[in-house]
Design a protein that fits this description.
Layout lengths: L1 H11 L2 H9 L9 H21 L4 H5 L1 H9 L1 H18 L5 H18 L16 H16 L7 H21 L1 H6 L5 H4 L3 H18 L3 H15 L4 H7 L2 H8 L1
Helix pairs in contact: 1-5, 2-3, 3-6, 7-8, 8-9, 9-12, 9-13, 9-14, 12-13, 13-14, 13-15
Length: 251
């Protein structure tokens, strides 16, 4: 019974994404442990605060098991979110000025995404076509490709952005039913060619990554394609993001 509860907690609080994203800070020499912990707690807070305070109606259809879990454990998740933001408040003092600037820029689309409605459009960000994909990919690329480094590596930023962008589209295909019903305008539920776009983008991206000798990113895209082939659940797409860090760790 304890194993089932631990597994549910691990999956429904997006632990895979939190851990995988924080591992991108491990690739630095020397390892920035404070940044790893900061990214982990920031991810946990970002992913879970909306789920307990701003219930998204599409989740009733897209993630019914997660919705049930969160309803049963709301108090625990709220306290954990509070502790996570306290941890972030401590670790932020170890960040450089460049890292704080990258963090502020990454926070802007994140807060817009979490906002119940945008002031200038009276809609949620995810109700604007392609806004969800671009905001998530942009923020994730800043956190993984910019935050751990002393200066901007444009190639790494673009690689991370494209990987995240494709991954979001693939995940959105699993959420089509609930997203369509709640007027969320993603590429996956507004275009019948979404599958073709994913395969085209993945093919071009894999060839580019092989040419650039970026095998970790190439394997991540192959993982996404395999997950689509076997109709895998969301956590397999989250796992795909770990490949670039694994290749670095092995080198």
């Amino acid at each position: 019974m304890w194993f089932s509860k631990a597994k549910a907690t691990f999956i429904h609080t997006s632990q895979i994404t939190c851990i995988v994203t924080s591992l991108y800070a491990y690739n630095r020499e020397p390892t920035q442990w404070y940044l790893m912990f900061f990214i982990y707690f920031a991810c946990f807070f970002t992913y879970n605060i909306e789920r307990v305070y701003q219930k998204s109606p599409e989740d009733i259809i897209n993630h019914p098991q997660r919705r049930i879990y969160l309803q049963k454990n709301q108090t625990t998740i709220r306290y954990t979110c509070f502790l996570s933001i306290l941890a972030c408040s401590y670790f932020v003092f170890f960040l450089s000025k460049f890292q704080i600037l990258a963090l502020i820029i990454a926070s802007i689309p994140t807060f817009l995404y979490l906002s119940p409605k945008l002031y200038f459009s009276k809609k949620r960000l995810k109700e604007i076509f392609l806004a969800k994909e671009f905001s998530i990919a942009f923020s994730w690329a800043l956190i993984t490709a910019v935050l751990p480094y002393p200066e901007l590596n444009f190639k790494l930023f673009i690689l991370c952005f494209i990987l995240a962008f494709i991954n979001v589209i693939a995940c959105d295909q699993l959420d089509q039913k609930g997203d369509s019903k709640n007027k969320i305008k993603t590429l996956a539920n507004t275009s019948e060619q979404a599958n073709a776009y994913i395969y085209l983008l993945c093919s071009i991206y894999v060839i580019l990554c092989v040419y650039l000798n970026e095998w970790g990113f190439a394997l991540a895209l192959i993982h996404i394609l395999f997950a689509k082939k076997i109709h895998a659940s969301h956590f397999q797409y989250d796992l795909a993001l770990i490949w670039p860090t694994l290749i670095v760790l092995q080198s």
